[in-house]
What we know:
Oligomer: heterodimer
Largest sheet of chain B: 6 strands, mixed
Number of helices of chain B: 5
CATH architecture of chain B: Roll
Amino acid sequence: xxxxxPRSVVEGFYKALATSDFTALAPYLADDVTWTISGPVxxxxxxxxxxxKAVVLxxxxxxxxxxxxxxxxxxxxxxxxxxxxxxFGRLTASRGDIGRRISYRIAQFIRFENEKAVDYVSLIDxxxxxxxxxxxxxxxGGAGTAGELLAI
Amino acid sequence: xxxxxxxxxxxxxYKAYATRDAAKIAPFIHDDVEWTISGPVxxxxxxxxxxxxxxxxDVIENQVKAVLRTTSFVCESIVVDGDQVMMLSxxxxxxxxxxCTVRYRVANIMRFCDDKVIENLSLLDxxxxxxxxxxxxxxGMTRRGAHSSDFIAV
Lengths: 152, 154
């Protein structure tokens, strides 16, 4: 039977993640953790799936900050149930190179084993995120028109 | 005393919700429900906030099915804590217009009251969903005021 994760462990994990304190986060990650962020990897390069603690810490500590600076996660919902936890909130960050603040909704689902995260999946409102990162509304071009879409 | 939704209710709701049958889902929907589907309403017309049981059942029964007909609904995670529930599911559907298959993940962030859903936010990987629904890569499209080279610099 899977051992429940204490709420205090989930809160410690999220405090470290939300404030980008990856030294504090490291003890909460299993060596074989899988970390998945859904989204278009060609536009948001931090999306995709990573395996292993070292790779995940590099993603969080170096790769994502190279793209999005001053990231803050503000959770509005945190649920704990058995060996699982989930969080819904808003992630804010800035694109330092273009001086733009972005903010999008994010839902995270984590499974713990022995008080360490072994599986993390996040969904982001990726259309909204891409529009903010690009600083433009996405529209159909070429042969497509909005009217076609309404007819779908 | 603080209300906590029983797991049996959540499991029964999930099984009903997976059928996409409004008649089976209706008993789990509160009269005063607020149901939001996150995403671009210009591309996915069922997105937005819908209020009241009748409006929500209309979205499930008619508006979504006008675009997509769900063929598979696999729950990957259900987290129940007090009156709140978060659910992660992997869904497959066929586009109504041409029967092509699309696949996407959805997170439902829900609050229950009196064993019924009174608040739901459906969050999906909306960029991927839009590309699949329109059947084209957005990266190959024109972004307003942008050139394709802009994207390489992002």
